[in-house]
Design goal:
It comes from Streptomyces mimosae. This is DUF2637 domain-containing protein. Keywords: Membrane, Transmembrane, Transmembrane helix. The chain is built from 13 helices and 2 strands. It folds into 4 domains: about 1-90, no CATH class; about 95-165; about 190-260; about 265-360, no CATH class. The protein has a two-stranded antiparallel ribbon. A hairpin with a 3-residue loop joins strand 1 (about 265-270) and strand 2 (about 275-280). The protein is mainly α. Helices cover about 65% and strands about 5% of the residues. The termini are far apart. Helix 4 (about 100-120) packs antiparallel against helix 5, helix 4 (about 100-120) runs parallel beside helix 6 and helix 11 (about 315-325) packs across helix 13.
Length: about 375
């Protein structure tokens, strides 16, 4: 039980107290049998020493299991405290110093004390001043301040602190019971934005938040508006966003209609038909396919030079004839590109040659 308690809490607990209680009770028979002297000998070398050895054995077991764990027993705590006090009293409490450094530090402290005492002695006390001066010289010589800059700095710092100790009584200090006045906090950008939104109409405020976050979901827009002091639900934010989208769509439709009225686009695809948009109207051949690159399409001129026949012109004639038989109109550029697996420019040349052949054929 004591071992388990020691492993869990670091102290033997109640079992440890019982061990010392039993050892103390066993001292009584020792005095009854051996008298005063014999009782002391029997009690110390018997139950008391046995309990002490048991206590030390338990501590060894704990330190073996957990080296960083210190014993929390009463005797262990008292022993550590007395040891630290003794080391501090002797001036060797600081770790990591050798004997020479400990000696130099001790004589440095004495030199500070002698220098301060010499300053306070009156001029008429010549004998005392001479005696303190000799002690000060011996302390300075043994402290090594003449050759060690670190010791010299420590000596001067200690002497300055000791001579200025009287000034501690006149140093003005603020009272700890008076709370300092908090400086006025400058307005953060978030606070300024919230104040600006609160001065606006709620609908305009939600619209401003939506404009600042164009890809945000209505729930996120409502959350941001609420954080800035504009209580908004997801449904309200969604309604504002729908109104904005509807207004934007109407503006885009109006702009598109105005652009169509001003546009005049002519595209020719063979001799089958052409698309001509003027003031938004179409002619009778609106089902023909416009040429996406009218500037690159070779224009047919009756008096121009003859084009070299394409090697696959016969294949193109078959495709064109099949398309006319099936759909009632010649094959367009896309049909030729897809069926013959050729590019756009070559399809334009073949289409032009087919058109030239169609125009030159007798009706």
């Amino acid at each position: 039980m004591a071992r388990q308690s020691l492993a869990d809490t670091g102290s033997p607990g109640v079992p440890g107290l019982l061990v010392w209680l039993i050892a103390g009770v066993q001292v009584i028979p020792a005095f009854a049998e051996g008298g005063v002297v014999g009782g002391v000998v029997r009690g110390f070398f018997g139950p008391i020493l046995a309990a002490l050895l048991w206590h030390l054995a338990m501590g060894i077991e704990v330190r073996h299991a957990r080296p960083e764990t210190a014993s929390r027993g009463l005797l262990a705590v008292l022993g550590r405290d007395l040891r630290e006090r003794a080391l501090s009293r002797l001036g060797v409490a600081r770790r990591g110093r050798d004997a020479a450094q400990i000696t130099r530090d001790r004589w440095t402290d004495r030199a500070v004390e002698y220098a301060d005492r010499l300053e306070q002695l009156p001029e008429r006390a010549r004998r005392r001043r001479a005696r303190v001066s000799r002690r000060l010289a011996r302390a300075v010589a043994r402290s090594g301040v003449g050759t060690n800059p670190e010791q010299r700095r420590r000596l001067l710092d200690g002497l300055a602190a000791r001579r200025g100790a009287a000034q501690l009584a006149t140093i003005p200090l603020p009272s700890p019971w008076v709370l300092p006045e908090a400086p006025p906090a400058a307005g953060s950008p978030r606070a300024l934005a919230g104040a600006e939104l609160r001065r606006m109409h709620p609908v305009d405020a939600v619209r401003a938040v939506a404009d600042a976050h164009p890809d945000a979901h209505p729930a996120l827009v409502a959350s941001i508006a609420t954080e800035h002091g504009i209580p908004t639900s997801e449904a309200q934010a969604d309604m504002v966003l729908r109104r904005r989208e509807r207004a934007g769509g109407m503006r885009s439709v109006a702009a598109s209609a105005a652009g169509q009225r001003r546009a005049t686009v002519s595209a020719r695809v063979g001799d089958v038909g052409s698309v001509r948009i003027t003031d938004g109207t179409r002619d009778a051949h609106s089902d023909a396919q416009p040429d996406p690159h009218p500037e690159t399409k070779p224009e047919h001129q009756d008096d121009g030079p003859e084009l070299d026949p394409d090697p696959r012109l016969d294949e193109a004639r078959e495709i064109d004839a099949a398309h006319v038989a099936e759909h009632g109109r010649p094959a367009g550029l896309r049909i030729l590109q897809r069926e013959m697996r050729i590019g756009q420019q070559r399809a334009q040349r073949i289409r032009a040659q087919l058109d030239r052949a169609t125009e030159g054929a007798p009706s």
